[in-house]
User: Which sequence fits this backbone?
DNA sequence: CCGTTCTGCGCAATCGGTTGCAATCGGAGG
DNA sequence: CCTCCGATTGCAACCGATTGCGCAGAACGG
């Protein structure tokens, strides 16, 4: 028994497998791909040899020849926030199940970083790219990556061509408008009238959510104007100012851009002695897990984050296989009423 | 002007760049790599040509020849939980800055999935692999991936060779013991005696944390035995049973495996009418952002998650460049006292 | 017994860069 | 004027798989 087991043994090549199975490299290749032209016996012999040698194909070589990498690119703003984590998780899982690897980069809402990400994807030749709410314009995106291999996961944004209603190929959206409408309706039903919207500074302030709050109020014939607050860029920063500003002239309810902001605001308001929901009702958006165990538990519009990731991956993979991008979808959202908003009045004699 | 701008234009190759710069492919290649043997003039001409043509090198071809992919693999249990999200985020950022792409897969604490992940990494020829608290044994890990290209991010676990104290090459750990000790000390200082530990079912129950709680109690001369509870596998599941079990014979304080569990327990206990910290103190572990805005805000042992990810990436990259794995580190943790534990007694005349 | 058709397999080109080695050129040295 | 040398650049092999095409041998029909 010679030195053998601990020398940095050379990587096993297809050639080695072929040799062990007494066939040529081409036959080995075809056998492993289950090519019907290879006799069943040979196929099994090759597979056996491959298994015995722990053969691992070299993706670079394969990709070079086949012009496919079985790799997907995922660009999102931030891996730390619960929603994107959820999306990334589902995306990766779906991709993995379909035999794809995923290369992820967090763009941090920065133009240069996002462009770099796209370049990285291009170099590595990802078969497709999914982008979650980029700061790059959809136009630039489509310029930089093959539009037929591009999926946009685009919650709440106006700059998308033909939004809502008709599904746009390759675009995954959520029905934010319905969600916000339901939230505002709920607030109105519990007797709130003076409702304000709190925008997150990380967002363009022309969000559909803000607009929908205003629209719903108008439709329901509320005359008090909707006030709008906007939180500083980083939701984890000291919220003092904003909370104080709000507390100075407290609305009856606050609709927040998302749960993170809502939770953060609840904390800041508590600091100021403002009680939720007694003094002010709060509703969030996203339905992150922590919203369910905050104190008080947060009323929110739950978004199917996992579903978004899953659908994004599977749409992309279809696009890769079929060459054409499947229609996008607008995923439904759901309001979940918890403790941060007042409960419905026990059927007081209205009218 | 012929059809030209909207036909699916062929991808630009190095050859094209070379042609435009009137040099050979080899020269172009060297020029782009800033090879000093190429005259400065030629180098710039080539770079200019490359820029004008928007040349993007083909990573597959390069990797095939160079046997490097400038890609790192990251295997972690779950992209959804805040701690791992943080680690992944920092890891990706550091890698990107050093010119590496990262391929991530969530192993979901499943043997088969983790093995698959390692295979994916092997096929894609990642230059290095970082693994965050795997369910695979370190031994198996080192068998399946080149140990010189492997970094283990291993919070709280016993199965690691030579843990604590002396840094193990390629192993990033946190000083859990100190953290837990500080937490228990704090609890004792606030007058708690009957202290229980709550283990998370997702963990092997032989965690260092559990052991340290017991040890600290013993060292401080506490005679009441430490009780241990263990939470069901998925921390987001209905906590009813566990909370009820705990409430039935309430300890004075609860040390929880992590913040998620702590937060979740606080919610469940609140449901039962148990007040924190008046009826029971609670301390978590990790220092996730939400721990800072829960109600009551959670006392916790903060772990430098970002630092872990960053260090993991940079260690790995060093290993790739130098061929040898740098020493690992044991990162410090820090207790942050908030509202979920009683405050220190105002210097009562002890002893 | 010979020509045809399959069946099963192997040869060699190919994917797009990188790199060892040789070639070329101008100028210095003899 | 010839040789030598260093500075530049080009030729061609190579990385490891996939695949079009052709070939051998078996099976089959007449």
Assistant:
């Amino acid at each position: 028994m010679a030195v053998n087991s601990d020398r940095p043994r050379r990587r096993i090549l297809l050639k080695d497998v072929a040799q062990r199975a007494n066939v040529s490299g081409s036959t080995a290749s075809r056998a492993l791909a289950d090519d019907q032209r290879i006799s069943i016996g040979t196929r099994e012999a090759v597979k056996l040899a491959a298994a015995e040698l722990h053969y691992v194909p070299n993706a670079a070589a394969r990709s070079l020849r086949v012009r496919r990498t079985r790799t997907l690119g995922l660009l999102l703003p931030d891996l730390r926030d619960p929603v994107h984590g959820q999306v990334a998780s589902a995306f990766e899982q779906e991709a993995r199940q379909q035999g794809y690897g995923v290369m992820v980069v967090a763009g941090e809402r920065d133009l240069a970083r996002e462009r770099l990400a796209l370049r990285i994807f291009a170099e590595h030749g990802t078969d497709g790219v999914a982008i979650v709410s980029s700061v790059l314009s959809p136009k630039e995106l489509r310029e930089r990556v093959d539009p037929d291999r591009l999926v946009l996961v685009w919650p709440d944004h106006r700059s998308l061509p033909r939004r809502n209603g008709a599904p746009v190929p390759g675009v995954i959206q959520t029905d934010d408008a319905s969600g916000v409408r339901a939230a505002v309706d709920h607030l109105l039903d519990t007797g709130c009238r003076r409702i304000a919207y709190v925008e997150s500074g990380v967002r363009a302030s022309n969000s559909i959510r803000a607009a929908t709050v205003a629209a719903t109020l108008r439709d329901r014939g509320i005359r008090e104007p909707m006030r709008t607050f906007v939180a500083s860029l980083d939701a984890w920063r000291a919220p003092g100012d904003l909370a104080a500003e709000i507390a100075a002239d407290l609305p009856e309810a606050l609709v927040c851009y998302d749960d993170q902001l809502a939770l953060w605001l609840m904390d800041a308001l508590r600091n100021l002695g403002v009680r939720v929901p007694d003094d002010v009702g709060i509703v969030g958006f996203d339905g992150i897990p922590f919203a369910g165990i905050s104190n008080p538990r947060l009323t929110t519009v739950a978004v199917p984050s996992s579903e978004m990731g899953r659908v994004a991956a599977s749409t992309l993979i279809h696009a890769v296989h079929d060459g054409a991008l499947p229609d996008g979808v607008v995923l439904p959202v759901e309001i979940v009423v918890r403790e941060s908003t007042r409960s419905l009045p026990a059927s007081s004699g209205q009218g």
Remarks:
- Confidence is low (pLDDT under 50) at residues 1-6 of chain B.
- The longest strand of chain B covers residues 71-76.
- Chain B has twelve helices and twelve strands.
